[in-house]
Amino acid sequence: MAQKLRIAVHKFASCDGCQMQFLNLEQDLLTLARQVEIVHFAEATSVMQQGPYDVSFVEGSISTSTDLQRIQQVRAASRMLITIGACATAGGLQALRNWKDHGEFVRAIYARPEYIDSLAQSTPVSAHVKVDAELWGCPIDQQQLKRVLSDVLARITPRIPGESVCMECKRAGNVCVLVTKGEPCLGPVTRTGCGALCPRYERDCYGCFGPQEDGNARALGRRFQALGLSADEIVRRFRFINGWAPAMRAGAQAWEKQKPIIENMD
């Protein structure tokens, strides 16, 4: 009989929502526990075993010097490392600080800022260590998580879709809110995984599952401009949950540079 895989779930700067998706598997999680050893998972048990780990799932962004040291330790102890959620894959909402003066934020909030251990930027795990697979979303999707767990158990490379939300809308027969309602939908540049939840209810997608593999954020920005959005509104569209992901960042930066030109024309 093959030896059970040693599975670990690690938390960094995050809200714990993606770890909760593990716990929300309920009966499936109990089935999983019979097939693997869950040796490190603070959300589920107080028993914490040291590595090596066959697979480490990592939630959260790297936001402190302690985080930076610890993620390197996790990587060294893990045969495979899979990031889960927007914080781990793109820096999360914490990355909104990356465009401003971090020191100013700290001074405004804390009476003794010299005691605060906080990096100037909130960054994804992949900015610091090798990542073997990324499971996007805020939070991650349970069905995608189960598929990844099945692949891990089969000892094959996790299969994670990279197509756009638009493809999911087409399969579901959803009416396109961008075309029919003129809503500034991020579906064309956002990866599938959410079940096209917002467009299904005639709302525009705001990109919580991160950039799809072949999206053109700059072209979509031009479409938003044609709908009447200002440069500042376009920048804000791209700078949200996954705003520090390179594709979303490029989309925002293209319009950030045009803001003074467009505003002067007004």
Overview of this protein structure:
The chain is an alpha/beta fold and 266 residues long. It folds into two domains: 5-153, NADH:ubiquinone oxidoreductase-like, 20kDa subunit (Rossmann fold, 3-Layer(aba) Sandwich); 165-265, no CATH class. It is built from 13 helices and five strands. The protein has helices spanning 17-23, 27-35, 65-76, 86-90, 102-109, 142-153, 165-172, 177-180, 197-200, 217-226, 231-238, 246-256, 259-265, and strands spanning 5-11, 36-41, 53-59, 78-84, 133-135. A five-stranded parallel β-sheet has the order 2-1-3-4-5, sandwiched between helices. The relative contact order is 0.11. Mean pLDDT is 91; it is low at 260-266.
Concise description?
Helices cover 39% and strands 11% of the residues. It is α/β, with parallel strands linked by helices and 266 residues long. Strands 2-1-3-4-5 form a 5-stranded parallel sheet, with helices on both faces.
Topology overview:
Elements: E1 5-11, H1 17-23, H2 27-35, E2 36-41, E3 53-59, H3 65-76, E4 78-84, H4 86-90, H5 102-109, E5 133-135, H6 142-153, H7 165-172, H8 177-180, H9 197-200, H10 217-226, H11 231-238, H12 246-256, H13 259-265
Parallel strand pairs: 1-2, 1-3, 3-4, 4-5
Helix pairs in contact: 10-12, 11-12
What is the overall number of helices? 13
Counted up, domains total 2
Please give the order of strands in the largest beta sheet: 2-1-3-4-5
CATH class of the largest domain: Alpha Beta
Largest sheet at a glance? 5 strands, parallel
CATH H-level homologous superfamily name of the largest domain:
NADH:ubiquinone oxidoreductase-like, 20kDa subunit
Mean pLDDT: 91
Distance between the termini: 72 Å
* Contiguous runs where pLDDT drops below 50 for at least 5 residues: 260-266
Helix content: 25-40%
Number of strands: 5
Annotated CATH topology of the largest domain: Rossmann fold
Strand content: 5-15%
Give the helix/strand class: alpha/beta
| Basic shape | globular
Please write the string of helix (H) and strand (E) elements.
EHHEEHEHHEHHHHHHHH
CATH architecture of the largest domain: 3-Layer(aba) Sandwich
Instruction: Please state the CA-atom Rg, rounded to the nearest Å.
Output: 20 Å
